[in-house]
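Minutes, project check-in
Item: structure for the 719-residue chain
Input as provided by the requester:
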Amino acid sequence: MQDVATNSSINHIKVIMDPSKKKQYLADSPPSVVPLQIKPHFEALGKTEQLYSHYISKACFAGTRVVLRQVSPESEPLYDFIISLHKHCNGDYSKLKSKTGLNDEEMNQWLHYAAQFLGNAGNYKSFGDSKFIPRLAPEKIAALGKVSDASKHYEMCKDALYETKVEDLMHLGYPPQHLTTYYPESPEITKEEIAAIADFVKENGNILPENTRLKKLSSGDFELLIASAQTNPAKSDRDVSESSWTLDVEPVKGKKISLVYGDHAKEMEKIASFLAEAKKHSANEYQSDMHSEYVKSFKTGSMTAHVQSQRHWIKDKGPDVESNIGFIETYRDPHGIRGEWEGFVSMVNKERTKAFAHLVAEAPKNIKKLPWPAEFEKTFVAPDFTALEVLTFAGSGIPAGINIPNYDSVRQDPDGGFKNVSLSNVLSAKAPNEKVPFIKDEDMEVYKKYADAAFEVQVGLHELLGHGCGKILQETEPGKFNFDHKNPPISPITQKPVTSYYKPGETWGSVFGGMGPSYEECRAECVAMALCPDYSILQIFGFGNGQEDLHGEAGNVLYAAYLSMARAGVAALQFYNVDAKKWGQAHMQARHAILKVFLSEPEFCKLEYTKDDLSDLTIKLDRTKIATHGRPAVEKFLQKLQVYKATADLKAGKELYEGITSVDEWFATKVRPAVLAAAPPRKVFVQANTSIDGDKVVLKEYSATPEGLIQSYADRDYI
């Protein structure tokens, strides 16, 4: 539990935080609650596909408690507190007001906090990794905590609801300075110990870390906790036959590390059970084989089985129902190797998918337009690229697009590859009257009209070509290389042969570590910015006729894309911790880097303001100089990102990326406060549920309100 002080009479913390600082941690009031609309797409499915979707949806949400445990120690009891209060009053909060003495404003503050909590699957923002705290006074929550059904849960989380003694603990990151639960009950574990054990895991090639947590014991020994339903899987089902080792490198030399199976055992058993049911309704052998491997992985903890599931998944081309599930993205582990639980199931939007199919067909030609020689590019294997309407996305947040699997062993394999998906109903979900700060009045009409279209172009290019391009130079096994080792490629940066590459057992993620996820997102975003000025590409998305038309529809989409990226780079400062000098969100750090690239060409882009507090800050971007200044600047930066990644040059990559994303005093003390003052609430999504009634699968949607969001979770009684 976090280090908090308590008042013995009402058991809430008494921490004095500067009010101006505390303001940035207060829960959104109100949060932006939007519906994830799915009904017509779900009802268009046949009965078999509906049953298939139903069981996968339940498997996804059955991992909710895993996500909660991955966020903070208090998140799981806080979830139970929210749900038990809702069930106690049966969703009638007027009754709860009468019982607890809260007034209308106070009850609304509770509902707003609860909705934001559920929308983030924890009390730290999924986008930004900073804690948010109730606006409701502690004594009022204490009154809610006296409700009989909820009191035991309140007692378990009451001391961690508000601000911590040390502000650094309001942010996720490496212990002991910041909070993390990827290293549970390990207050003394150090960054150096985490790194040393990560290196050990990397060298023992059959142990993949995505489904693990690491625990340091009081003896100084370590346990690697593996998510599995079984606490003692058969040796034949394990990825390694050994169960413990003595470490031989500092600072863990002489210490023992043991594999401990059964982390999240109850949840893994439920998930495996639901997926076994989904398998019965598979449309083809690829889906059936995929679910067999999923079940094995979640029962036994085998990540080898999960890798195999992804090989089957990428062969399942163009299904009517698309899904994926597991410990996928590593953004929130401070070391960047352990995955957060997520799962989704969705229906394919066939009309929108046609444009993506054209983009895939043109990909080899368009990849050649990127700023590096052919030796730095892999053979493009055409992936599935689909527009999806999401029924369920379980995890801490919902992205706009996905490019998976993340396993290099699958992505780099000519018989493997990846899939791209764009989440259409996530992209189109809107809250009424959303604020749009930092855009000039003269640009607002174009921005509002074309920003959604520009974002769809950006997501498509980012996911397919951004994450899908670029070779890593590798010694695949001792003495075998995927490039001409005797005549290595010439670096376009130094004009000399490259001297570094990935050694056997090394991966992009293991070499670049915690910086890797943001660096890769930046590379993918730069690919989108480098290619979207190509009018033939804009035509693929339905804009223009392929000819340059700077002030026509295609030109407006292009301008909106660059404006959106610049605006995101400014807004990114909301996710920067000034005191810790730490970014809290991988994508936003990436977008701030691109803003800096834009600003490096002052004739093209600048920030303008007249007021001392920068409350009228706007972006001045010259659309006539995108081709001559903006795009070339992006391409120069992108070339470095790719070459350093390709050659495992962590030193140069770190200098480049940490250098451009460092935040100087003006950005930290002038721009960031203006960003915080203008920041709109981030969207939280209300998702539907499915149930079986006789021989039918019934879809239930909910109102886009805090109460509707809470009810949707309360109805998932299997969590």
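Outcome recorded: The chain has three domains: 1-30+63-165, 182-315, 435-678.
No further action items on this chain.
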